[in-house]
Amino acid sequence: MRSNSLFKGSLTTIILTLLEQNEMMYGYEITQKVKEIANDLKITEGALYPALHKLEGDSLLTASFKKVGNRTRKYYKLTENGKTESVNRLNDLKDFVEQMQLILNTKLTTQ
């Protein structure tokens, strides 16, 4: 991956989708899951936590604290509105990718 700039606008969709798939996750776990799935994509804490807080403020996520060993972790979970928003954003992203493929394929065939 040459640049993460294309993914910056998709961070919210990535978070919502991962939470939909995994039910409940904490911040570091989200960054590691993204790294595991898309090795070249790095989500920094500086980008992740403001996005999580915004989603929580928008009532798309709820947060709860759990003690794990000597640590207290903040786990995030989708609300019902978050589940709906996750589906909507994923559909929007799929539509966008399809449109981009049409544009790029047209450009490639005309050259």
At a glance:
This protein has 111 residues and is of the alpha+beta class. It has helices at 5-8, 11-22, 27-37, 45-57, 80-110; strands at 24-26, 61-68, 71-78. It is 64% helix and 17% strand.
Description:
It comes from Pedobacter segetis. This is Helix-turn-helix transcriptional regulator. It holds the Pfam family PadR. Residues 15-85 form the Transcription regulator PadR N-terminal domain. The structure is a single chain. The protein has 111 residues and is an alpha+beta fold. The protein has one domain: Orthogonal Bundle (Arc Repressor Mutant, subunit A). It contains 5 helices and 3 strands, in the order H-H-E-H-H-E-E-H. A hairpin with a 2-residue loop joins strand 2 and strand 3 (71-78). Helix 2 packs across helix 5. The protein is elongated, with a radius of gyration of 16 Å. The model has no long low-confidence stretch (mean pLDDT 88).
Helix content: 55-70%
Element-by-element helix/strand order: HHEHHEEH
| Oligomeric form | single chain
Give the uncertain stretches in residue-range form. none
Distance between the termini: 25 Å
The CATH superfamily title: Winged helix-like DNA-binding domain superfamily/Winged helix DNA-binding domain
CATH architecture: Orthogonal Bundle
Let me know the number of strands.
Answer: 3
Q: Could you please say which CATH topology applies here? A: Arc Repressor Mutant, subunit A
Rg, alpha carbons:
16 Å
Question: How are the strands of the biggest sheet laid out side by side?
Answer: 1-3-2
Helix count equals 5
Largest beta-sheet characterization = 3 strands, antiparallel
Organism: Pedobacter segetis
Protein name: Helix-turn-helix transcriptional regulator
InterPro entries: Metal_resp_DNA-bind_regulator, Tscrpt_reg_PadR_N, WH-like_DNA-bd_sf, WH_DNA-bd_sf
Pfam families: PadR
